[in-house]
Amino acid sequence: MKKIIIISFLISLLTATYTYAQENSFKRFSVTVAPTHLFLGNAKLEVEYRIGKKMGHSIAVAPQFHYHYFDASLASRSPIPSISFFGYGLEVQHKLFLLKIIDSTEIYSWRPYFSYGIGYNTFENKYRADVWYPYEEDGLTYITYGEQDINDKIYRWRGSIFIGVQKRTGNFLFEAFGGMTAQFSNINEEYKGLIDYKNGFWKYGYTGFAPRAGFKIGWYLF
């Protein structure tokens, strides 16, 4: 009788443990970062929530921060060092997964997806440069040449489409993606023509279409 009770207890414990492992494996929240962005002056953290019993789609929200020092390729006249360049923004994506999760055996499968999203960024560049500027003296306005503090701002909207794939290993997540962005930028310059924001290497003020690609790593929270 004791053996039957002990065996029954062990079976119940193993069943409960297996059931908990299955339920715990269906995690919906994850966070990812793109390591390459850090080398390009961008810090971006993406939080993703998977929706539905089969997790057929998800919503991803990515706050981001930008920092960079312009190089000579951006200056139309001469190299102008930035005193500070920074930006912030937010991007929201809706992902549609081609492979739905029906049981726990499919949790760790490769999951291709299609996604679309919108994003907004604000950038501010503060630097000093020699320019012609007006000043007043004795009620009169004069123009002189000298070094001035300059503050330029860029406002940018983006609409993007992507194809990508996610792979889960334990609680870790790997993702690769590629796609196209349509971007509109509004540039507010105090002195036009000092820095080429539209055609420089980083193209913070570019308006038009641009390819996007990269990879992310992250982990599942719960």
Model description:
The protein is mainly β and 222 residues long. It has one domain: Porin (Beta Barrel), CATH 2.40.160.20. Helix content is 13%, strand content 58%. It is built from 2 helices and 8 strands; from the N terminus they run αβαβββββββ. It has helices at residues 2-25, 35-39; strands spanning 29-33, 42-51, 57-67, 82-97, 111-137, 140-169, 172-188, 208-220. The chain has an 8-stranded antiparallel beta barrel with strand order 1-2-3-4-5-6-7-8. The longest helix has 24 residues, at 2-25. The radius of gyration is 26 Å and the shape is elongated. The protein starts with a helix and ends with a strand. Residues 5-23 and 72-76 have low confidence and may be disordered.
Entry summary:
By secondary structure, the chain is mainly beta.
Domain unit count: 1
Order of helices and strands: HEHEEEEEEE
The CA-CA distance between the termini, in Å, is 41 Å
Shape: elongated
Strand content: over 45%
Helix content: 10-25%
Question: Can you tell me the CATH topology?
Answer: Porin
Provide a count of the helices: 2
CATH architecture name: Beta Barrel
Number of E strands: 8
Q: In this structure, how is the largest beta sheet organized? A: 8 strands, antiparallel, barrel
Major β-sheet strand ordering: 1-2-3-4-5-6-7-8
Arithmetic mean of pLDDT:
82
In the CATH scheme, the class would be: Mainly Beta
**Cα radius of gyration in angstroms:** 26 Å
